[in-house]
Every structure is written in C-alpha cells, then in structure tokens.
Write a structure and sequence with these properties.
Length: 227
Amino acid sequence: MEKITIAIDGYSSTGKSTIAKQLAKALNYIYVDTGAMYRAVTLYAMRNGFISENSKDVPGLISSLDKINLHFVFNETLGFSEMYMNNENVEREIRAMDVSRLVSKVATIDAVRKKLVSIQQKMGEEKGIVMDGRDIGTVVFPEAELKIFMTASPEKRATRRYKELLDKGENVKYAEVLKNVENRDYIDSHREISPLKKADDAIVFDNSDMGLEDQFSRILHFANRVI
Ligand code: C5P
C-alpha cells in the first residue's frame, strides 16, 4: 500500500497529538509532535538566559541554535516518542506552564522555524508520517495528501489542558490556562512568518462536542479514503 503524508494543524490543546498518535499507530506510521520541538528550543533558551517573561535575546539564541540537538526516542512502555534535547529526556519539562508561556514568542523567530522545518521535512522524506503542529499543511508539507485543521472552543480546550496539567501534578488555575491558550492562539495566528492558518485544501474538524473514539474513527475514515 502506498504511504502518504498526514498533516494535522490547529489551535492549542485541540487534542491534535492524541488523535495523531492513535492514527499513526493504526496505520503503522511515524508520529511527529512538532510542538515538542518548539518547546525544547524554548527550554534551551530559558536555561541559557535567552528568554524570560520580560527579556528576549534573539541574536544570542540564533547564534546558539547549532548547539541544540533534537531527536525523538520511542518509549516502548508508554507507546509514544519522547523529546530529547542534547541527549536529555525533556518530555516532562517542556510541557510545564513556564515553557507554555514563552514558546509562542520563540516560535516567531525565523531562524528557529527554518531549523525546525528543515528537520521536520527530513523526517517526512519517506512519507508514512503523521505530523502535528501549526504550519504542517501550509509550510512543512504543502503537498500532504491529507490535511486536517482541528479546532474547538477556547473554553473546551482550556478545560482539557487544565485537567492534563492537574493530572501531572502542576499547580495551576483554570483562568491561567485559558489565558495561555488564548494568548498562544493570538500570537500563533498573527505572527509574520508561517502564521497558524488553515491550508486551502484542509478539512476543518471541530471537536468541541466529540468524544475521542468518534474523532478517531472519523479521521481514520478520511485517511482510508486517501490511502
Ligand atoms: O503543539 P503545542 O501546543 O505543544 O505547540 C507549542 C507552541 O509551539 C505553539 O503554541 C506554537 O507557538 C509553536 N508551534 C509552531 N509551529 C508548529 C508547532 C508548534 O509555531 N508547527
């Protein structure tokens, strides 16, 4: 069977990665979470003093980009790939609120995007890939055979994210999570380079009132129509 490229884009916390992971597993495809890569660069920038709540040293970060080595390692026990930065498993740290607060700022930097897009394109050279992010259908793989644009109301998305963070033991308030989701969507949709937008040929998928099973079977159906 011919392998295809599947691009899943959309707003923050729409559950893109959950569906993308399930889909990759069902099709025996590779799954790539590009948000994790932007988060890892952000963590590096925070640790090295290139970004904080009130400062941003873009030239400093750009001159250090070559020192950031990113790769995914499949964790058999968990059943998904984890993000490694310079050989350190950063999966947990990159999901924390302090990274979420700064990641969209780092994602506006052209040199950061160029570096990550080039890695992502290499990962997808052989097709057989499900990649989720903000610019996959528009920039990374404009020729993808299947493009999904996921959306849901900000309140539904914040509720999901809030529960996830509480489950992980983070001490957060719902209002803070909602504000973060709205802020990131605003920055992501309004940035100059590769803003979050639906590709002309993407299928819009609003999952505000849809359970996981229902979402998965509908998206698998879209994929089977193309494969
Ligand atoms: O997908 P996730 O919410 O983890 O992504 C974190 C942030 O990384 C997004 O809010 C966005 O600023 C940035 N991002 C991006 N392009 C992608 C993936 C993520 O700009 N392809």
